[in-house]
Amino acid sequence: MPRPLSLMERLGGKKQETQQQPERPRMPKPVDAVKQQEPQKQEYTEKQVQQEREAAVEASAFAGRRALTSQSDVIQELKLAVHRRIVDEMTPEEQQVLIRGEDAREQIKNIITVYSNREMAEGTNYALSRGERLQIVDDICNELLGLGPLEPLLQNDSITEIMVNGPNQIFIEQKGKLKLTNVHFYDNAHLMNIIERILTPLGRRVDESSPLVDARLADGSRVNIIIPPLALVGPTVTIRKFSKNALSINDLVGFGTLSDDMATFLNACVRARLNILVSGGTGSGKTTTLNVLSSFIPETDRIVTIEDAAELRLQQTHVVTLESRPANLEGNGAITIRDLVKNALRMRPDRIIVGEVRAGEALDMLQAMNTGHDGSLTTAHANTPRDVLSRLETMVLMAGMELPVRAVRTQVSSAIDLILQQSRIRDGSRKITYITEVQGMEGDTIILQDLFRYVQDFIDEKGKSVGHFESMGLLPNFMDKFRMNGIDLPANFFMSGRGDRQ
Known about the structure:
By secondary structure, the protein is α/β, with parallel strands linked by helices. Helix content is 35%, strand content 19%. The protein starts with 6 loop residues before the first helix and ends in an 18-residue tail after the last helix.
């Protein structure tokens, strides 16, 4: 049998000539010793120094000792050690403090600090600054009370979306731009533990038999979760954050989403009980706009909201919130949006707000709008006002009813009064690009008329979109509804060219 390699040989020394033997598992060599070449004098390069360092680390691990190769390894090892101490040594009194949760955060941080100091005093590898020690205490506190590494991102109000692509890659959306963070989870098990913490209070579940789920956080933020085997990169979590304080129409005007005239007009439309459809792409701000529009509904109206995951936060007193339910483990008990829309018609609503129509519920929503439930609001995915009408036709047909296309278009044209098209501009800003009136049918075609639009003039040197909102100078056909509801707009309100630069 060949002689075992010495430590010096494993670290890069010359390999002795041996007889050809079958390949046996052994530790990878740090230097490229497998290449056969003629003996020659080699320079001691920086690359060779690095190879020797890596070989030393491997040799240390081979000998049964875990070498800490970076400061992050030191910090992670300390966190795990403190966790173990807390589990093993926590007293009943400290457990009672922990049960109180966020209400006792400062006391819990003091307890964690004691265990952390105790571990660092007994350890030999923990050369950490005061700032790093405080950060470790915060991280462990977030693990115990919140969503672990995601907690600082959730607390940052400038972050609007968090995208977790497996344990080692977390992106955020900040000011409309995507950025890769240096935040990560320890492994897949750590990430799955945080996912369970999100779903458990909601009575939802995710596993291999049901690998995707929609949920929400306590603050109303939307969460989508998909795990292996469907997600090949590992558990994937997408969190759409919502502002802690409900946005008003003045906030949207300040952000440049719409102009003052458009805001005044939309306020009048909601109070005049027009049926409004908000369309746009993913992340264009449809739900935010729907929330703002709902703020114009009078306090005296009874409102029923219907959503997959409850996200709308209405300020009125008389609001009934309904939420769909997925099937159980046996595949039974599912309650769809369509079921809730049908049930809402029996609840004596003045206004029905559907978070989003995606399928057959579009038919029931149109029926409700056509049978006395004026002033209803909903959203749908589409790129233009014309496209959203085509999508509505398709969704109505998904209800399983054999209806002629003309009958469907007649339902759509009589139900929808106004379409708000919202878009996400290249610079990350959100704009209401069209406010379009649905005028009715002419032959087999639904007639649309743009009332306001956003015109992009150019992109400045900073990549920001520069444009303006303008009125098209056309008087809508539903002005009689304004008069019936006691709403008066200035005579020159729809004057052509009237608008604001943004």
